[in-house]
Amino acid sequence: MDFPILAVLILLPATAAVIIALLPERRSEVILPVGVALSMLPVGLAGYLFFAFEKGEAGFQFVEKVAWYEPWGISWHLGVDGISLLLVVLTTILVPISLAASTAITDRLRMFVAMVLVLEAGLIGVFLSLDLFLFFVFFEVILIPMYFIIGIWGSERRIYAAVKFFIFTAFGSALMLAGIIAMALMHGDQTGQISFNYIDLLQLSMSSNTELWLFGAFALAFAIKVPLFPLHTWLPDAHVEAPTAGSVLLAGVLLKLGTYGLLRFNLPLFPEASVELVPVLAVVAVIGIIYGAIVAIVQPDLKKLVAYSSVSHLGFIVLGIFALTSQGLQGGVIQMVNHGITTGALFLLVGMIYERRHTKKIADFGGLARVMPVFAGIFLFTSFASIGLPGLNGFIGEFLVLLGSYTTLQPYAIIAAFGVVLAAVYLLWAYERVFTGPVTKPENEKLPDLGFREIAIMVPLIALMLFLGLYPKPALDRIAPSTERVLDRIEQVADFDVPEPGRLDDVFSGEAP
Amino acid sequence: MSDLVNVSYLAVGPEILLTLGAVLVLMIDVFRQPSARVHAWIVAATILAATVVTWFQWDRVTGEGPFLAFSDMVVIDEYGVIASFILLLVGALGLAVAWGMVERLGRRGAEGIVLVFMAIAGFQFMAVSANLVMMFMGLEIASISLYVLAGITRERPEADEAALKYFLLGSFASAVFIYGVALAFAGTGGVSVYDIGAFLRGSVLLKPGVLLIGMALLITGLAFKLSAAPFHVWAPDTYQGSPAGIVGFMAAGAKVGAFAGLGRIVITAFPLYEAEWAVGLAILATISIATGTLLAIAQSDIRRLLAYSGVAHAGFILTGLTAGEAGMPAVWFYLAVYTVQLIGAFAVVAAVAGPTAAGSPMSDYEGLSRRSPFLAAVLALFMLAMSGVPLTAGFVGKFGAFAVAWRADFEWLVIVALVASVAGFFFYLRVIVLMYMREPAVAEAPGTMRARLEPVGALRWVLIISTAITLAFGIYPTPLLDLLSTALPF
After folding, report:
1. Which residue in A81, A159, B168, B377 is deepest, having the highest Cβ count within 10 Å?
2. Chain centre to alpha carbon of residue B78
3. Quick one: pLDDT at residue B394?
4. Are the beta carbons of B389 and A141 separated by less than 8 Å?
5. Angle ∠(A452,A458,A464) on CA atoms, nearest 5
C-alpha cells in the first residue's frame, strides 16, 4: 500500500491536539507557538498534495479503503478530487493563521488550541470521506470542538449562540442520517450487500419520489450549514459571539461544508431531483444574496456586518452550483475558496481592532486611517477582494457564477448581479465610517498600528487574494475535470442537457477537461 | 428438550458462585467484622470466579451449541451468556463505584455487597431462564435486592422514600408480570417459552384475545423494570433519593435484566405474533422517547435528568427490538455500552455528591471543569455519548438500533427517534454548559465548594475503564459487533 497521505492529513492535526493536551499548563507561553508550529505540518502536506494531484484526472485520487465493519458495508474510504482538493488546502492554511491570531486567549489556552486542531482534523475528514457513514461521523464530530470554542471563549451571549449553533446543525444532520441509512439499506435490497460507499451508492436506482425525499433530507442538512435563507438565523449569533479564530474557521471552512455537500452528494446522487428542484434552490439562493446584503448594510456592528455578508456570498455559491453549467460549478468551487480567504481575513481584521478597542461598533470609530494606516490599507484591499474587484480573487468567482447562471437562470443572474453592487455599498460605506474623516473619538487617537505578528498573519491571505485573482489557472485546472464529471453524470442520468454556451471548455485555461 | 431433570452445574455456575460469595460475606461478618480490604478481596474473587465460569459457558455454547438444564428451566445460549457477561461487568463497576458507600456504612456495607451479588444473580437468571415462572423468580430476587439497596442508608428520609416508591410500584409490576404468565398459560397450556412457541406453531388460535392480553401484560411488567414510559414514574424519585454510590448499578442492571427477559419472551415464545408485539413495542418506544426527552429538559437535579434520559434510552433500545431477532445484536451493543456510560456518569455523580448522599442539584456542577478537569471531561464524554455523538460508542449503538428498525419498516419511529435525539442535546449540553461555561458558584463557606475535587481509588478506575470502553467501541466497534452478531436466543 502506498503512503496513506490522506489518512495522515487527518491524523496529523488529531495527534497534534493530543500533544498540545499533554503540554504542561504552567508553560502557557509555549502552547500557542507549539500549536502554530504543529499546524504548519498539515500545510506542508496539503501543499505536496496540491502539486502531486494529477491535473487532467476527474476521478478520485490517493484513494484509501479499509473495511471498518463489513456486514454494515462501512469502510474507511478516503479520496480527493478537484472539488475537495482546494478546500483541504484552504483548511490547513487557515488553521495556523487563526491560531496565530489568538494571542488574546489566556484562559484554558491548552484546551483551546487542542479544540482548534481537533476541528481541523474533522473538517479535513469531511472533505476527504468517500463513505457516507464516515462522512456523517466527521460532519457531526466537528460540532463538538466548535461548540466548545464558541461556548467557552466567546463573548457575552456565547452560551446561547453555542447551543443554537449546535441544535440547528444537529437537527439538519439527523434527517440526513435517516436518508443515509435508507440509501445503504436500499443498496442492500438491490444488490444483497448493504453499503455506505459513495461510489456504490451512485449506482442506486430509485423512484423519482424517493429521490425527491432523499434530496430533501440531504439538502436540509446542507442548507442549514450553508446557511440558506430562512435557515440562517444561527449564523449571525455564532459568528458574532465566537472568538476570532472560531469566526475565521466558521466562515472560512464550516459554511463550505454545506455547499460542498450539495455539490458532492445532492447533484451526483440525486440528479433528477436536482434538475427538478433547480428553481427552488435558485430562489432561496437569490433571496439569500439580496437579503444578506441588505441586512449587512444596516448593521451597526462590524462583525455582524461581515457575518451577514457571508449569507450573501454563500448565496452566490449555491446559485453557481445549481446553474448546472461548467462555469457555474467552477465558479461555485473557486468562490468557496475565495470566500474562505477574504471573509477569514475580514474577521481577522475585525478581531484585531476589537483587541485594541474592545468594541466592534462602527459608530465607535472614525478616521482610523490617520491613526492606523497599514490596518486601513489592508482592510480596504480585503474589502475590494470581497466585493469582487477585477484582478482580485473575488472577481473570478463571482464572474464565473454570473456567467454560468446567466445561461440557464437568466432572471436570477440579473437579480444576483445587484448583490455585487450591494456588497460595494455595505463594505465601502463601513470603510468610510470607520476609517475616513477626522478622528472623532479621543480613545481612538492613540491606537497602535498593526504589529509584525499581525502583518505576518495577513500577508499569506493577501498573497492568495492577488494570486488567485491574477492567475487562477492552477486552481481551475484542478477543479474543472471534476465539475465536468458532475455535469456529465447529470446529463446521462437525468434527461437534461446543459444549454450550449454552458458547456464551453474552461474559459480561462482554454484546455479541454 | 427432554423431560429428564438434566442437572448441569455449569448452567447455573455463575449464580451459584455469586450466592456463595454473598453467604461468605454474611458469615464472616457474623463472627468478626473484617476490614473493607477483606471484603474487597472476596468481591474480586467472586466476580472473577463467576466470570471464569461464564467464560466456560461461552466456550461450551460456541463449541457445542446451546443446552438446556434443570428440567428445561434454564437455557444456556450465546444470548444468555452475553447477558451474564454484561451483568458481571456492570456489577463489578457498580460495586467499585459503591465502594465508598460500603466503607462508610460499616457492617451495613457488607449487606450492600450481598444485595448487589443477589441482584446480579437474579438478573442473570432472568436472562437464562427458558421458563416464565423461572424468569419471575429471577425478577423477584433482583427486584427485592434493589428495593433494599435503594433504602440502605435508612437514616435518610429521602432514601426511605425512594425505597418505598420503588417497592410499591415494583411489586405492582411484578404482579402484572405474573398475571401475564397466568394468562399465557391459560392461552397455551405452557409456561416454558419453547412450549408456548411450539403450541402456537402447531395450532391456530381462533380467539387469541387472552393470549394477547397475557403477552401485553408480560411486556408491561418488564417495561416497568426497564423504566419505559408510561411505566417510568418510579425512576426519577428512586434515582434521586437512593445513595449516590449505588444508583448506577440499580439503573444499569435492571435495564440489562429486563431487556434480556423481554427479548427472549417475544422472540422465542411469540414469534407468530411479531406483527402485534412489534407495533406494541414501537408505541412504547415512541412514548418513552418523547416523555423521557421532554421531561429531562425541565430537570434541575442531574439524577432526575439521568433518570428521564434513561426513559428515552429505554425507548431507543426498544426501537432496536422492534426488528425482533434481527435487531437483537444492535440491542445488545446498545445495552452494553449504554450501561457502562450510565455507571460512569453516576460514578461522577457519586464523586461530586459523596457516596451516600441523596440528590445532586445541577448547581453543584457549575464550573466543575475548574474544580476537577478530569471529572468534568469524563462526564462531558458520557453526556456526548448518551446524546449519540459520533466517535463515541453511544453513536454506534443508536445507529445500529435505528438501522435495524428502519429495515423492519418502522421508518416513522426512526424519524421520531432521530428528532428526539437532537432535542436531547438540549439537556445533555446543559450539563456541559454548567461544567465548562460557567464559573463555580461562590460558596457561602469559603473553601468548601471551590475546593478541588479528585476521584480516588476504585472510583477513578471505574471512570478510566468506562471512558476507555466508550471511546474504543466508538472508534472501532468491529470486535464487539462481531461478537454480538450471533447473540440470539436459542
Report:
1. A81
2. 18
3. 93
4. yes
5. 140
At B61, list the grid cell: 455454547
Q: How many domains does chain B have?
A: 1
User: In 3D, which of B193, B187, B262 has the Cα closest to residue B222?
Assistant: B262
Give me the pLDDT at residue A508, please: 43
From CA A138, how far away is CA A128, in angstroms rounded?
A: 10
Q: Does B16 touch chain A (CB under 8 A)?
A: no
Q: Which of A131, A177, A186, A195 to mutate to test the interface with B (most CBs of B within 10 A)?
A: A177
Give residue B248's domain range: 2-487
User: In this structure, what C-alpha cell is assigned to residue B324?
Assistant: 425482533
For B471, what's the count of Cα atoms within 13 Å in the CB-facing half-sphere?
10
Q: What is the pTM for the complete model shown?
A: 0.92
Q: For residue A491, how many other CB atoms are within 10 A of its CB? A: 16
> Which backbone phi and psi does B170 adopt, to 5 degrees?
-65, -40
Task: Give me the residues of A, 292-311, that contact B with CB < 8 A.
Answer: none
Looking up cell 415464545, which residue turns up?
Answer: B269
Q: Nearest by CB to A170, from B425, B432, B478: name it.
A: B425
Q: Does B367 touch chain A (CB under 8 A)?
A: no
Q: Which of A163, A185, A186 to mutate to test the interface with B (most CBs of B within 10 A)?
A: A163
pLDDT at residue number A504? 58
**Would you list the domain boundaries of chain A?**
277-513
Residue A71 in contact with partner chain B when CB distance is under 8 A: yes
Chain B residue whose CA is closest to A156 = B437
Q: Which residues of B touch A136 (CB under 8 A)?
A: 390
pLDDT along chain B (490 residues), means of 10: 72 93 89 82 94 94 89 90 95 91 83 93 94 94 93 86 91 94 91 90 83 93 91 90 89 94 93 90 94 92 93 95 92 95 93 83 86 90 93 93 93 93 91 86 51 78 94 92 88
pLDDT of residue A510: 44
- Asked if the Cβ–Cβ distance from A181 to B433 is below 8 Å, we say no
Do the Cβ atoms of A260 and A175 come closer than 8 Å? no
User: Cβ-count burial of B10 within 10 angstroms (0-12 exposed, 13-18 middle, 19+ buried)?
Assistant: middle
pLDDT score of B442: 58
DSSP H/E element including B67: strand B67-69
Whether chain A has a CB inside 8 Å of the CB on B38: the answer is: no
Query: Which residues, 6 or more positions from A15, have their beta carbon under 8 angstroms from its beta carbon?
Result: none
Query: For A89, what's the count of Cα atoms within 13 Å in the CB-facing half-sphere?
Result: 25
A55 within 8 A of B465, measured Cβ to Cβ: no
- Which of A139, A136, A134 is closest to A122 using CA atoms? A139
Q: So what's the pLDDT on residue B147? A: 93
Asked if residue B231 lies in contact with residue B173, where contact means CB atoms within 8 angstroms, the answer is yes
Residue ranges for chain A with pLDDT beneath 70: 1, 504-513
**B52 touches A at CB < 8 Å:** no
> How many CB atoms neighbour CB B58 within 10 A?
17
Secondary structure in 3-state letters for A339-397:
HHHHHHHHHHHHHHHHHHHCCCEHHHCCCHHHHCHHHHHHHHHHHHHHHCCCCCHHHHH
Q: Are the beta carbons of B437 and A174 separated by less than 8 Å? A: no
CA distance A337 to chain B (A): 27
Amino acid identity, position B31: F
ipTM score of complex: 0.89
Which helix (H) or strand (E) element contains residue A68? strand A61-69
pLDDT in tens, A74-122: 999 999 998 999 999 999 999 999 999 888 888 888 889 999 999 999 9
